[in-house]
C-alpha cells in the first residue's frame, strides 16, 4: 500500500511517480492538519457530494453572470440543506457544515453565508433565553434568513460614529429605527441585498434624548411571503465586487421604522419598559459576532492558501519548461530552486495558519462559555490575539496566493486555475471584520498595556509572558547544534520583544517631552503596528513548534518538522532587518539561515505533492483545472476554454455590428 493515498489508476504517470516517493501516510498527515475526526468527515462528505448530482455546479461559475451565480448558489444551498442529514454526521457542527458548503457551493458566497457566520453567533451570544426561543430556533431551522448590518456608507471602522438611531418610545414600548443621512445607510452586509428577510442591526440606543452608544437590534426587513421590503425600509444590492460575486452585499435604510422594545438583543445590555438602561458586564460584549468571525477566518484563510499551494505545486509537477542541464530534456518546473523557494514557504504558512486556526477556535469556545456565565476576563486576550492573527494571516495569505498564481505562469492568470477567485475572496479578509491596520493597532494597545504590567514584574496574560524574560545580546543560530531549532524560535521572540519595548520607550519619551498620549501614538503608529506584526509572527512560529512537538508518529513529525524549519528560516529572513539593527544576528548567521533554507527546499521536494495531497481537497472543492488530482491538465484546459460563452458561435454579433462595417469602409476608401 503506497503511503500517499491519492494514487488512482488513470492518473498522470508523472504525478504517480511523485506520489510514490512519500515518506509519510497522507491520511495521517490529514489527521494532523484537520484533526482525525474532521479529516474522516471531510473525506466521507466529499464522496457523498460526488454522488449527489443535484449539488454539482450546473456549469463553471466563471462563465456565469452575477444573477446566474446568485441563483445557482441559492439552488445548491437549498439542495444541500435538503440532503444534509444524509451527508454530514452533525449538522450543528460548524466545521463540518463549512466543509460541506466548501465542496458543494465553493467560496463565491450564498444566501446563508452571514446567516451562519454572524447572525446566528450574534443571537447565541447576545439574545436572552426568550429571544433565543423566538429567533434562534427559527434561524437554525432555516425559517428565516438573517444578516449582520453594522457597517454604514460613512463608517465601518469607527463604530462610535455609526449614525443609525434606535430611539425608545416609552408610550408605545417600541424603538424607532431611523437612517438620518445618506452616510447612515447600512452598506456591505452579506446577503442583505436580495436574500435576507431579517437583520441584526447596530444602532445608537437613545432614551430620553440620551445616547448609550450602539447596540444590536433584531429587525425584520422583508415580508416573509412576498419578500418585498417592509414599510419604511429601503434595501438593495451594492453592485459587483472584486470577487465573492455570488453574494448580494447590500444597502439598507430606515424611515422611522418601528420595532418592539424586546427586539433589542438583551442578554447583557437591557432596556426595561420604563426606559431604564442596564449596562452589559463588559463594554465590548456586543462585538462578539465580530470576534467569532475573526476566530474562524484564521483556519479558513489557511485553507485558501492551502488550496492555492495545492494548485501551484501539482501543476508545477506536470508543467515542463526549459532544461537545467543542456541536452538532458525539459524539467518539471518544480525542480527549479526559484520555484521551490516561491512555493514551499507558502505551503508551510498554510499549515501553520490551519494549526493557529484550531488553537484560536479553542480559546473562542472557552471565552464563549465563560461569557455565558457573565465571566469576561479572557475577552481582552481573545480580542488581541484574533486582531493580530486576522491581520497577519490575511496579509500573508494573499501575498502567498499571488506567488502561487505567478508560479503557474500564464495559466495562473486564467480563471481555469481557480486561484483568481479564491484570491479575491481571501483579499476581502484584509478589509472585512476590521481593516487590518486598524486591528493591528488594537493589538498594539494590548501590547503597550502588557509592557506597563511587565515593568511592575507582572504579566497581562499567557500570550505576553515572554515580555518578562531578559533579552539575549546575541543569537545562538549556527553556534550550537540545530536540534529542534530553539535558537531560531528564540530569535522570533527576541525581535518581537525588542520592537515592543522600543516603541513603548519611544512613546514614554515623547510624552515625557509634553506630547499628549494620542499624538505620541500617532507619531509612532507605524512602529506600533510593526510591533503587533512581530508579536503575531512569533505566536505563529511558536504555534508551529507546539504542533510539531505534539505529533506522535515519527514519519509525520519528521515531514512536519521540515516544513516548520523552513518556515523559521524563511520568515526570519523576511524580518532580518530587525535582527540586524541591534547586531543580534551577524552576517555569517544570516548566510547560515539562507543555506539551511536551501537545503530544506531540497529535502521537502520529494514530499511536495504528498504534503499538498494531505489537505485532501477534492477536485470539486478545488475547482481548478491546473490543480486536478489526476494531473490531466492540458486536455482539460482545452475543454474548459471551449465552454467559454464567446465560443457559442464562430461569429459574434459585434463583428457584424462594428468591426465589419469599419473594415469594409476602410477597404472602400483604399480603393478610391
Ligand atoms: C451553510 C453554511 C454553513 C456554514 C457557513 C460557515 C462559514 C461561512 C464562511 C464564510 C462566511 C462568509 C462570509 C463572511 C464574510 C464576511 C463577513 C464580514 C462581516 C463584517 O465585516 S461585519 C463588520 C465588521 N466590522 C468591524 O470589524 C469594525 C472594526 N472596528 C472595531 O471593531 C472597533 O471599532 C474598534 C475595535 C476598531 C474600536 O472600537 P471602539 O472605538 O469601540 O474601542 P476603542 O478602540 O476605544 O477600544 C476600547 C477598548 O475596547 C477594547 N476592545 C475593542 N474591541 C473589543 C472586542 N471585540 N473585544 C474585547 N475588547 C475590545 C479595546 O482593546 C480597548 O481596550 P483598552 O483596554 O481600553 O485598551
Ligand atoms: C467582502 C466584504 C464583506 C463585508 N460584510 C459585511 C457584513 O456582513 N456586515 C457589515 O456590517 N459589514 C461588512 N463589511 C464591511 C467591513 O466590515 C468594513 O468595510 C471594514 O470594517 C472596514 O471599514 P471601512 O470600510 O470603514 O474602512 P475605513 O475605516 O474607511 O478604512 C480606510 C483606510 O483608513 C484607515 N483607517 C481607518 N481608521 C483608522 C484608524 N483609527 N487608525 C489608522 N488607520 C485608520 C484604514 O487602515 C484604511 O487604510 C464587509 C466588507 C467586505 C469588503
From TrEMBL:
> Is-annotated flag, keyword Lipid metabolism?
yes
According to its UniProt entry, one GO biological process term is:
ascaroside biosynthetic process
Give all residue intervals belonging to the Acyl-CoA oxidase C-terminal domain: 489-663
Task: Please report which protein family the annotation says this sequence is part of.
Answer: Belongs to the acyl-CoA oxidase family.
Instruction: Enumerate the cofactors the protein uses.
Output: FAD
Pathway where this protein functions? Lipid metabolism; peroxisomal fatty acid beta-oxidation
Instruction: Tell me which residues make up the Acyl-CoA oxidase C-alpha1 domain.
Output: 287-448
The cross-references to InterPro entries, in alphabetical order and at most eight, read: ACOX_C_alpha1 (IPR055060), Acyl-CoA_ox_N (IPR029320), Acyl-CoA_Oxase/DH_mid-dom_sf (IPR046373), Acyl-CoA_oxidase (IPR012258), Acyl-CoA_oxidase_C (IPR002655), AcylCo_DH-like_C (IPR036250), AcylCoA_DH/ox_N_sf (IPR037069), AcylCoA_DH/oxidase_NM_dom_sf (IPR009100)
Q: Does the keyword ATP-binding apply?
A: yes
Output this protein's name: Acyl-coenzyme A oxidase
Q: Which residues bind FAD?
A: 151, 190
A GO molecular function term, named singly, is: acyl-CoA oxidase activity
Query: Which domain of life does this protein belong to?
Result: Eukaryota
List the keywords (alphabetical).
ATP-binding, FAD, Fatty acid metabolism, Flavoprotein, Lipid metabolism, Nucleotide-binding, Oxidoreductase, Peroxisome
Amino acid at each position: 500500500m503506497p503511503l500517499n493515498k491519492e494514487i488512482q489508476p488513470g492518473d498522470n504517470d508523472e504525478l504517480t511517480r511523485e506520489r510514490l516517493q512519500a515518506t509519510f501516510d497522507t491520511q495521517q498527515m490529514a489527521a494532523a492538519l484537520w484533526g482525525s475526526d474532521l479529516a474522516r468527515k471531510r473525506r466521507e462528505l466529499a464522496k457523498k457530494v460526488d454522488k449527489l448530482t443535484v449539488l454539482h455546479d450546473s456549469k463553471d461559475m466563471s462563465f456565469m453572470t452575477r444573477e446566474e451565480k446568485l441563483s445557482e448558489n441559492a439552488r445548491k444551498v437549498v439542495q444541500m440543506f435538503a440532503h444534509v442529514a444524509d451527508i454530514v454526521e452533525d449538522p450543528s457542527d460548524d466545521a463540518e457544515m463549512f466543509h460541506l458548503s466548501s465542496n458543494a457551493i465553493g467560496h463565491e458566497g450564498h444566501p446563508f453565508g452571514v446567516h451562519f457566520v454572524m447572525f446566528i453567533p450574534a443571537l447565541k451570544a447576545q439574545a436572552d433565553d426568550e429571544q433565543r426561543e423566538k429567533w434562534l430556533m427559527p434561524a437554525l431551522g432555516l425559517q428565516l434568513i438573517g444578516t449582520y448590518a453594522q457597517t454604514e456608507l460613512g463608517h465601518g471602522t469607527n463604530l462610535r460614529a455609526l449614525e443609525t438611531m434606535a430611539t425608545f418610545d416609552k408610550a408605545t414600548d417600541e424603538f424607532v429605527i431611523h437612517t438620518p443621512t445618506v452616510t447612515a445607510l447600512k452598506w456591505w452586509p452579506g446577503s442583505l441585498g436580495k436574500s435576507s428577510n431579517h437583520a441584526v442591526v447596530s444602532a445608537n440606543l437613545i432614551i430620553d434624548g440620551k445616547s448609550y452608544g450602539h447596540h444590536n437590534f433584531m429587525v425584520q426587513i422583508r415580508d416573509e411571503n412576498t419578500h418585498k421590503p417592509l414599510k419604511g425600509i429601503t434595501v438593495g444590492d451594492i453592485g459587483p465586487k472584486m470577487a465573492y460575486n455570488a453574494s448580494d452585499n447590500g444597502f439598507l435604510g430606515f424611515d422611522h421604522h418601528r420595532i418592539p422594545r424586546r427586539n433589542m438583543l438583551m442578554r447583557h445590555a437591557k432596556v426595561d419598559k420604563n426606559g431604564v438602561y442596564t449596562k452589559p458586564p463588559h463594554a465590548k460584549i456586543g462585538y462578539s459576532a465580530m470576534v467569532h468571525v475573526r476566530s474562524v477566518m484564521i483556519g479558513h484563510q489557511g485553507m485558501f492558501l492551502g488550496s492555492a499551494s495545492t494548485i501551484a505545486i501539482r501543476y508545477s509537477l506536470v508543467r515542463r519548461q526549459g532544461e537545467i542541464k543542456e541536452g538532458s530534456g525539459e524539467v518539471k518546473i518544480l525542480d527549479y530552486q526559484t520555484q521551490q523557494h516561491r512555493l514551499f514557504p507558502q505551503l508551510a504558512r498554510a499549515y501553520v495558519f490551519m494549526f493557529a486556526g484550531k488553537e484560536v477556535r479553542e480559546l473562542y469556545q472557552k471565552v464563549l462559555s465563560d461569557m455565558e456565565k457573565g465571566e469576561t476576563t479572557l475577552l481582552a486576550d481573545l480580542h488581541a490575539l484574533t486582531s493580530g492573527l486576522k491581520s497577519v494571516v490575511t496579509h500573508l495569505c494573499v501575498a502567498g496566493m499571488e506567488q502561487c498564481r505567478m508560479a503557474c505562469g500564464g495559466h495562473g492568470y486564467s480563471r481555469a486555475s481557480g486561484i483568481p477567485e479564491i484570491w479575491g475572496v481571501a483579499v476581502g479578509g484584509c478589509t472585512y471584520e476590521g481593516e487590518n491596520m486598524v486591528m493591528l493597532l488594537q493589538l498594539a494597545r494590548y501590547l503597550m498595556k502588557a509592557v506597563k504590567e511587565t515593568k511592575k514584574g507582572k504579566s497581562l496574560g499567557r500570550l505576553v509572558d515572554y515580555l518578562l524574560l531578559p533579552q539575549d545580546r546575541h543569537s545562538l543560530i549556527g553556534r550550537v547544534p540545530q536540534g529542534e531549532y530553539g535558537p531560531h524560535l528564540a530569535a522570533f521572540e527576541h525581535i518581537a520583544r525588542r520592537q515592543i519595548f522600543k516603541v513603548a520607550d519611544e512613546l514614554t519619551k515623547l510624552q515625557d517631552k509634553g506630547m499628549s498620549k494620542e499624538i505620541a501614538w500617532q507619531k509612532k503608529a507605524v512602529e506600533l503596528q510593526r510591533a503587533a506584526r512581530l508579536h503575531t509572527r512569533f505566536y505563529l512560529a511558536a504555534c508551529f513548534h507546539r504542533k510539531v512537538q505534539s505529533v506522535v508518529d515519527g514519519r509525520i513529525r519528521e515531514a512536519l518538522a521540515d516544513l516548520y524549519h523552513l518556515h523559521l528560516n524563511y520568515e526570519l529572513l523576511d524580518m532580518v532587518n530587525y535582527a540586524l539593527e541591534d547586531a543580534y544576528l551577524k552576517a555569517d548567521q544570516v548566510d547560515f539561515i539562507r543555506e539551511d533554507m536551501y537545503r530544506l527546499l531540497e529535502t521537502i521536494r520529494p514530499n511536495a505533492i504528498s504534503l499538498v495531497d494531505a489537505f485532501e481537497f477534492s477536485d470539486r472543492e478545488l475547482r481548478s483545472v491546473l490543480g486536478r488530482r489526476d494531473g490531466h491538465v492540458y486536455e482539460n484546459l482545452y475543454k474548459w476554454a471551449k465552454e467559454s460563452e464567446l465560443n457559442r458561435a464562430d461569429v459574434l454579433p459585434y463583428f457584424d455590428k462594428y468591426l465589419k462595417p469599419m473594415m469594409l469602409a476602410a477597404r472602400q476608401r483604399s480603393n478610391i
